[in-house]
Every structure is written in structure tokens, then in C-alpha cells.
Write a structure and sequence with these properties.
227 residues; mainly alpha; 11 helices; globular; nickel insertion; Urease accessory protein; UreF_sf
């Protein structure tokens, strides 16, 4: 029951982590010229690129957190962060991920201040990328690695759907169906993530338009979302 509850908590946008201020890049994409009719395709592209990397990284972070105490977790976390940085060319996307990661880490340390993995992560990475913080917090909460990967994918899809309701005139049921229609893709991404054995296995799919849109978004003075 605790593991199931942990999965629900990690996927809840109402958690005090700052996620409500992020649109998974949708606002930047629409302002950059993405037609409204292509938002479902945008959502699935995010799952194949950003979410695929995040889910795999979360699985690795989850495993590091659960390793024996004598393992050098600090260097493993730093190495994983460097790998994520190398696979996220746009500084704006890296910054957004670290803002969310800092919020997750802060929440985790508030709930479990004496927990070793969270303390080690805070020591070496005060603002870790979101999937690292999510993977470690999932381990602390008792969720398994598949729950961490699923939370990454669900949050990605639901962030796009929720942001679309604020940015576009549309029926909320339509946005909900986008998420449901992505179920098979989410399953595939989660399975791929669970097969990630080392940093060398992390995916590195290119998303140049998303990266450019995110960079441009940071220069805009009128916007609803941070990213």
C-alpha cells in the first residue's frame, strides 16, 4: 500500500515542488509557432525524447539510492548529473529540470530529514536534475523503479495536457484523452527505462525545435509558465 501511495504522490501536481509553474515546454512551443492541432504530437514527442531520458535517469538514481551503504553514492549521483547535462543541450531546459529537482529534494528532506540518500544527494547536488531527485525520492518513499519511471512519463504527459487547458480554448476531456491515447507509448518508455543498466545506456534523442523554443521562451516578458 505504501508503494502504491508513493506512486500517486509522485504523480500529483499538487505537491509543493513548483511543478504547477511548468508546462513541459508547451507554452514555449505555441509561442514559437507550433499549431494548436499538433499539440498531441508534441506530447508524444516529449515522451520519446525528454521523458525517455528522464525515466531512464530516474531508474538509475533509484538504484543508486537503494545500493549498499558502502557504495560511493555521491560520485555516482554526480556522474549521473553530468550525463544528463551532456544529453540536454539547451541551458533553459537544464535550468527548468533543476528547478523541479530542487523542489522535489526540498520536499523529500522536509518529510524525511534524516534519510541517507536524500542527504547525500543534497550534499553533492543542491539542485539536482528532476529525474535524479524523483528517483531518489521514489526509493525513499518505497516505490519501485518502475513507479519512478512511470511518474516521469505521466508527469510529462499530464503537464502538457494541463498547460494546454490554460493556453488554448478547448474541452478538458480532449486533453485527458491525449494522455490516455499515449498509454502504449508510456508503457514502451517505461520498459526501455527499466532496461537501463548503466549511464552508457541513457537515451540521447535529439529535440532541436524544443531546445530552441525553450531558449527563446526565457527572453519573453509575457508568459504564464516558467518553462
Amino acid at each position: 500500500m505504501k508503494a502504491s501511495l508513493a506512486g500517486l504522490l509522485l504523480a500529483d501536481a499538487r505537491l509543493p515542488t513548483g511543478a504547477h509553474a511548468h508546462s513541459s515546454g508547451l507554452e514555449a512551443a505555441l509561442l514559437g509557432g507550433l499549431p494548436a492541432g499538433q499539440v498531441p504530437g508534441y506530447l508524444q514527442s516529449r515522451l520519446r525524447t525528454t521523458a525517455a531520458l528522464d525515466a531512464s535517469a530516474a531508474v538509475l538514481a533509484h538504484r543508486i539510492a537503494n545500493e549498499a551503504a558502502q557504495v560511493d553514492k555521491v560520485s555516482r549521483f554526480v556522474e549521473l548529473e553530468a550525463a544528463l547535462t551532456a544529453r540536454t543541450p539547451a541551458p533553459a531546459m537544464r535550468q527548468a529540470s533543476r528547478q523541479l529537482g530542487r523542489g522535489l529534494l526540498r520536499l523529500g528532506r522536509s518529510l524525511y530529514p534524516a534519510t541517507e540518500p536524500l542527504g547525500m544527494l543534497a550534499t553533492c547536488l543542491p539542485a539536482p536534475s528532476r529525474p535524479i531527485a524523483l528517483g531518489v525520492l521514489a526509493a525513499v518513499l518505497g516505490s519501485d523503479a518502475s513507479g519512478a519511471a512511470l511518474a516521469c512519463c505521466y508527469d510529462e504527459a499530464q503537464s502538457v495536457a494541463a498547460a494546454a487547458l490554460k493556453l488554448l480554448p478547448m474541452d478538458p476531456a480532449v486533453a485527458t484523452k491525449w494522455v490516455l491515447d499515449s498509454a502504449e507509448l508510456i508503457d514502451a518508455v517505461v520498459c526501455q527505462a527499466l532496461d537501463t543498466d548503466s549511464i552508457r545506456d541513457l537515451p540521447a534523442a535529439s529535440a532541436p525545435w524544443m531546445e530552441q523554443w525553450s531558449q527563446d521562451h526565457g527572453t519573453r516578458t509575457r508568459r504564464l509558465f516558467i518553462a
